[in-house]
Design goal:
heterodimer; A: 273 residues; alpha+beta; Ubiquitin-like (UB roll); Fumarate Reductase Iron-sulfur Protein, Chain B, domain 2; 2 domains; five-stranded mixed beta sheet; two-stranded antiparallel ribbon; 11 helices; 7 strands; 33% helix; B: 141 residues; mainly alpha; 3 helical TM bundles of succinate and fumarate reductases; 5 helices
Chain lengths: 273, 141
């Protein structure tokens, strides 16, 4: 048996048809589908294929990308009807033994052109939940005397949610967003939870006023599609349910729950401030 | 649909109600979400004649169907209440993620709750159908 080398990864193995959504809202009356045939190897990602089409076949094709390694969250698209980061999805993986891949812009985002969506309202919703640490000790902030320390348990409460790229996959997959355009969406709600359980943060009640509203967290009914499509395994559905639990406990005057108290390791004692 | 609405429809790219029913490739929770919406709307539709006359009944088979719709909505509603207000089986945030980690909220203990819900629905639906189709006509409607 021949040993597989890394060069084999780039040897063309198949011709795949990319069916791409073409639409310029300023010019076109309605969207069109255009097909491009492209030779792919085992390692070709959809982003590689799109860049090659733009360079060699059709320079008018528009899409957004930046890092190409699933770190920036610019290139989320609908690949065969499912939200994915195209920079880390291989063409053959998406084609699934067939010979075509369908690419559309993300659902529920206004189209700027072709595959690029407009994220303005998405980012506005993220900003609305105050995604920063809110402190009340103004004296300490003006004249700092040391760091704000945390135990590993306190860190574990929110670490998972810090991986969010703001790629918009969860927002696009959410069935509630499809009909309620004012709804904050899974990304903003999960980020709200991330800041509310942070032991350094004092803005719990300030954020509850924003989240406990008509278009806030109570619109979520656990379709769990956000967690299903999240490319960084942030699990926004879990964040939103824990957020609701936190708000309910707060309303009944109970102590906020601490979801990660049962972690095995404790790194030293931390001086409370 | 006028020209302006037509252009807006494509430029805004909103899914609308069809977004509730895009279930292919997603997990079973999404299917339950869609069913919960449909059954909720159907129950509201039934309520309208029901308010007009509480004695109104749509007939034996429709009665059985209505019972099934209501029992699904109740069983799933209990599940959603436990999940949303108490966080039952939703799991804890992870500190270490494995490569290709599946979400804890989907693959975790919440799935047992889901299985229980479906079981509860089937039991209630069978009992109700038996009552509506067999017992009630024997008792004279």
């Amino acid at each position: 048996m021949m040993e597989q080398s890394s060069i084999d990864l780039w040897k063309p193995v198949k011709v795949v048809k990319l069916k791409i959504y073409r639409y310029n809202p300023k010019k076109d009356f309605s969207p069109k589908w255009k097909e491009y045939e492209i030779e792919v190897s085992r390692g070709t990602t959809i982003l590689d294929a799109l860049i090659r089409i733009k360079e060699e076949v059709d320079p008018s094709l528009s899409f957004r990308y930046s890092c190409g390694q699933a770190l920036c969250g610019s290139c989320a698209m609908m690949v065969n009807g499912r939200q994915m980061l195209v920079c880390r999805t291989r063409v053959l993986e998406a084609a699934h033994n067939r010979d075509f891949v369908e690419l559309r812009p993300l659902d529920n985002f206004p189209v700027i052109r072709d595959l690029a969506g407009d994220f303005t309202s998405f980012f506005e919703k993220h900003r609305a939940i105050k995604p920063w640490i809110i402190r009340r000790d103004f004296e300490e902030l003006d004249n700092p005397t040391g760091e704000y320390k945390q135990t590993i348990e306190e860190y574990a409460r929110y670490y998972q949610f810090t991986d969010c790229l703001k790629c918009g996959a969860c927002y696009s997959a959410c069935p509630t967003v499809a009909t309620d355009h004012e709804y904050l969406g899974p990304q903003a709600l999960a980020q709200a939870y991330r800041y509310m359980v942070d032991s350094r943060d004092d803005g719990l009640d300030e954020r509850i006023a924003i989240l406990d509203s008509d278009h806030g967290c109570w619109r979520c009914h656990f379709a769990a599609s956000c967690s299903d499509v999240c490319p960084k395994y942030v699990d926004p559905a879990q964040g939103i349910q824990l957020l609701k639990k936190l708000i309910v406990r707060r309303k009944f005057g109970l102590k906020p729950h601490r979801p990660s108290d049962a972690l095995p390791s404790k790194i030293g004692e931390v001086k409370r401030r | 649909m006028g020209e302006r609405e037509y252009l807006e429809y494509y430029a805004l790219n909103r899914r609308g109600v069809s977004g509730w029913f895009r279930m292919r490739g997603y997990t079973i929770e999404r299917k339950l979400y869609a069913l919960h919406r449909i059954t909720g709307i159907l129950i509201v539709l039934f309520m309208l004649p029901h308010f007009y006359s509480t004695g109104w009944h749509p007939g034996i088979w429709w009665d059985a169907l209505l019972g099934i719709i209501v029992t699904f909505h109740v069983a799933n509603g209990v599940r959603l209440t436990l999940l949303e207000l108490l966080g039952a089986g939703i799991g804890k945030p992870l500190l270490v993620k494995k490569p290709f980690q599946r979400p804890v909220s989907i693959e975790g203990r919440q799935r047992y709750l889901l299985a229980l819900t479906v079981l509860l629905f089937i039991v209630l639906a069978v009992i109700w159908s038996y009552y509506a189709v067999i017992v009630k006509p024997l008792m004279g409607g």
